[in-house]
């Protein structure tokens, strides 16, 4: 699925480099930081898909893959500079750098890369507040005519709290159980964000993750 375009300012990171980047974010920000969780979850998916012998270029599971990049002439170990591209119904983009004085390395990546599909509905996810105004200006300069910013909140439940959670009493006609493969179609039918490829995505979520449904 990825993609090292000759001459593009973004260079794909190898799996071992993404693991290094993961450790850098853990050491600097802790395990509840969004960027750490983004990296952690993707490496978890990579391992699960590898164990299931699903190749990286399998289009049926493209929604479960992210490609991480860094500045081609930079060193991600210095400032943690990364750009993540994810292909689903539309492209989604995440990015960060802790470089002081304006994160010049990151902005070179965003302003010079040809890999971001600005005018095709690219979704910029979890943009840090300090980057919001400038990235809006960049999007407009790339021909984007409609911007719909939304707040994003993350919730993290610790293992200890999860183990102590109390299951409420339910009427006799209901049950709480782990989802099965055949449940994915029912969930998909009522999912407002469904589209091409989304049923396969839900099936993979059920197959590879622990789940609970009523």
From TrEMBL:
Task: Report the residue ranges that make up the DUF5645 domain in this protein.
Answer: 9-138
Q: Which domain of life is it from?
A: Eukaryota
Residue intervals passing through the bilayer: none
**By its UniProt entry, which Pfam families does this protein fall under?**
DUF5645
Q: What is this protein called?
A: CG14615
Record lineage: Eukaryota, Metazoa, Ecdysozoa, Arthropoda, Hexapoda
What gene is it encoded by? CG14615
